Amino acid sequence: MSHAAVGAPGTPRRYLHSLWLLSARDLKVRYATSFLGYLWSVLDPLVMSAIYWFVFTQVFHRTVGEDPYIVFLIVALLPWVWFNGSVSDFTRAFKKDSRLVRSTAIPRSIWVNRIVLSKGIEFLFSMPVLVLFAVFSGATVNWMLLWFPVAMLMQTTLLVGLGLLVAPLCVLYADLERTTALILRALFYASPVIYSFQDLPAPFDTIGAFNPLSGIFTLYRVGFFPELWQTTPVVISAVMCVVILALGIWTFRSLERPVLKEL
After folding, report:
1. H-helix or E-strand containing 54?
2. What is the pTM of this model?
3. 19/156 Cα distance (integer angstroms)
4. What b/e readout covers 19-32, taking b as 16+ CB neighbours within 10 angstroms?
5. How far apart are CA 211 and CA 190, in angstroms?
6. CB contact at 8 A, 224 and 143
7. Any idea which of 30-34, 89-93, 245-249, 256-260 has the lowest mean pLDDT?
8. What is the pLDDT confidence band of residue 9, given thresholds at 50, 70 and 90?
9. Residue 213 in contact with residue 186, Cβ under 8 Å?
10. Domain residues for 239?
11. Per-residue pLDDT for 208 more than 70?
12. pLDDT at 155 over 70
């Protein structure tokens, strides 16, 4: 991120305007070229939810999660799709538009932040699905639903930090793209998506508390399941999100020149 670009007059407004245009373009392209369009935003988590609901309620005797289990699943699967889709796209963030990345005068962090924003908008588009399932399954809400936007803010912070780490490193080390895909597969089961943080036995609960998604998913869920509140993972997640963001900014600034040479 060049210091000249950061300090230029009017840059924040220009940056935000460009960020919105790029994110809007991504969404238009994605929906315009697809017959199902908007439905793709919800189809993946819906199919995953249906599969896990069937396996854990009809095939196996479920000992994890809360009832209604379908709401318990969806309220974590939707943000997981946001997280998974963003991190996957980070690995190709600079390679995909290498010519623009080299020539643009806008701070190059925009190629990471556009992914976070466009995937975040898709996440918001999927909220009606959560509302419908909550209504039809008889789920109740409480005042702790106010933690939902806090969870979104923490997830945005986490994703920006990870993007600033992953995107430049994947340019310099090509094998990291496949490595990231493997890590994401493992992380799905290591994160409280199909189970809650409270379901983790010792000593895995101590280890799991340092997964920033543990606290974030807890905040998403407590509006429907207040008994899932756990202070420790929430506080640790908040701290880790800030630390990862700081690490991402430092890494991005250190690697920007080598990345531009490689592109």
Report:
1. helix 40-54
2. 0.88
3. 15
4. beebbeebbeeebe
5. 8
6. no
7. 30-34
8. very low
9. no
10. 3-262
11. yes
12. yes
Tokens representing 5? 């670009």
Range 31-40 average pLDDT = 66
For residue 169, the one-letter residue type is L
The answer to whether the CB of 137 falls within 8 A of the CB of 39 is no
- Exposure pattern of 190-221 as b/e (b: 16+ CB <10 Å)? bbbbbbbbbbbeeeebeebbebbbbbbbbbbb
Q: CB of 213 within 8 A of CB of 237?
A: yes
Say how many domains are in the chain. Answer: 1
DSSP, collapsed to helix, strand or coil, labels residue 105 as coil
CA angle 7-91-43, nearest 5°? 110
Residue 144 burial (CB < 10 Å; 0-12/13-18/19+)?
Answer: middle
Give percent of the chain with pLDDT exceeding 90. 56
Contact 82, 119 (CB under 8 A): yes
Determine the Cα–Cα distance for residues 182 and 152; give it in Å rounded to an integer.
25
